[in-house]
Design a protein that fits this description.
By secondary structure, the chain is mainly alpha-helical. The protein is built from seven helices and no strands. About 8% of the residues have low confidence.
């Protein structure tokens, strides 16, 4: 079931990547969408293009680059009289936060998936790592679940605001990326 969910998460991720292109977002957003999709595809199919930890590092580096861009977006002086320009700046900043948080959550999911895959090698043999205690996986799971819940809340807010502005591409992008993250989270949980 977990493998089906992993592969199923690729569909909304691909839709989200296409919406990123169609929404005329920046090149960093496009690279982030493609890298997330590539990491998911690599891990879901088991091809092994990169080691999961390297995927996580690449995702985190992109999240940091996106956060740096957020600082430059919010640091721009906006004309006080121009409400449209201010709203556009806020929207770009919110979408950048969405991209950055999605990258961080995906890095956590990639590491968790890699841990599950490594653990499954020893699952039937009775071998366990020395020093493994019951409950050591609880904190990372709670943090990841909390991150996914926060991502869903942010995504819902962004989708509602975009729907009010009649920006269908943004609504589909946000909804599909959220569906992908939730599906990956379910796959990891099973």
């Amino acid at each position: 079931m977990s493998e089906v969910l992993h592969l199923g998460a690729l569909v909304p991720a691909a839709v989200g990547a296409c919406c990123t292109v169609g929404g005329r977002r920046g090149p960093l957003d496009l690279v982030a969408a493609i890298v997330m999709l590539a990491a998911m595809l690599d891990l879901a199919t088991g091809v092994g293009i990169l080691h999961p930890l390297l995927w996580a590092v690449v995702l985190i580096v992109l999240a940091v680059a996106s956060a740096v861009r957020l600082r430059s977006i919010t640091g721009l002086p906006a004309p006080v009289d121009d409400a449209v320009a201010l709203a556009a700046t806020r929207h770009r900043a919110a979408m950048t936060v969405h991209t950055s948080s999605g990258l961080v959550i995906m890095a956590g999911l990639v590491c968790t998936m890699a841990g599950h895959a490594a653990g499954s090698v020893y699952a039937g043999s009775g071998m366990h790592s020395a020093g493994h205690r019951i409950g050591t996986d609880v904190l990372p799971a709670v943090l990841l679940a909390g991150g996914i819940a926060g991502f869903v809340i942010l995504s819902t807010r962004l989708a509602v605001e975009a729907a009010r502005r009649r920006e269908r591409v943004v609504v589909i992008e946000v909804a599909s990326m959220t569906a992908s993250v939730v599906t990956m989270g379910l796959a990891v949980a099973l």
